[in-house]
Amino acid sequence: MKYFFDTYSIIEIIEDNKNYEKYKEEEIVTSILNVGELYYSLLKKNAEAAETWHEKLKQSAMLVDAEIIKAAMKFRFNNKNKKFSFIDCVGYVLAKDKNLIFLTGDEGFENFENVEFVK
Fold this sequence. Notes:
Structural class: mainly alpha
Radius of gyration: 14 Å
Strand content: 5-15%
CATH superfamily: 5'-nuclease
Distance between the termini: 19 Å
Low-confidence stretches: none
Largest sheet: 3 strands, parallel
Number of domains: 1
Number of helices: 5
CATH class: Alpha Beta
Strand order of the largest sheet: 1-2-3
Shape: globular
Number of strands: 3
Order of helices and strands: EHHHHHEE
């Protein structure tokens, strides 16, 4: 089983959340948008870690095309009561498109299909 790691899940791995222990050995598959979001989040705390993780993930990050964006915005519109972020919607749709399980700690996704919810 392969996973699509949202930004939250990558941060939890970086911060050694024990609930994410089993995912540490998995290949981190994510989008270029999540790489940017992760960089920004880490930059606020530790510029060196931000650079390290950016270098680690940038080459393998998936690019996002216009059709994925369109489908993600339809998903976001249809779930507007959940207040999902743009990047999470893109990640969720991209994961489904690539037959990956969307790994997240975002409670809004907890009962969605194709999601592994870990807090």
